[in-house]
User: Fold this.
Amino acid sequence: ELTDLVERLEEAELDVYMTIITLIGIEFDENTVWGQLTILELKLLIYLALGELEEALELVEMFLQFNDNTVERGLFYQAMQAALEATLDDELALDDYLYNFRRMFGNQVMDAVVGSIDGTVRFWGLEETGMDLRGLDRHLKLIESYQKLHAARARKAGLTQ
Assistant:
């Protein structure tokens, strides 16, 4: 499924800086990771989940160059770039750098980075949701407002006939 999704995103040639909100039409709180998630970051996280580290590194570099996001996500991707470069370079070993990376970026960030690289962490920072829209309070409130509006219109239409 993830391979199909990333292929469809690539083939669609969408603006990688488009937010997921714009793409799928679901309202997320702008102050959450979902609310700030772009197609670029989604593709990056998919490539990490698939273990396609070279593709992920390319997108991390784009993310860091052109994206303004939270300090926490920026730090995560700076650490990710350093860790991916060490992982992908045949002359280097990530384990040789972890002590200093942990001093620079913190244990929590490096645990998330290493987990994302080795596959034990998937889609770091994104809260799980589903087709029932659980956890998407803003979108559920929007749906509730539309339902009230349609009910009011139906009542009004019934009264005028």
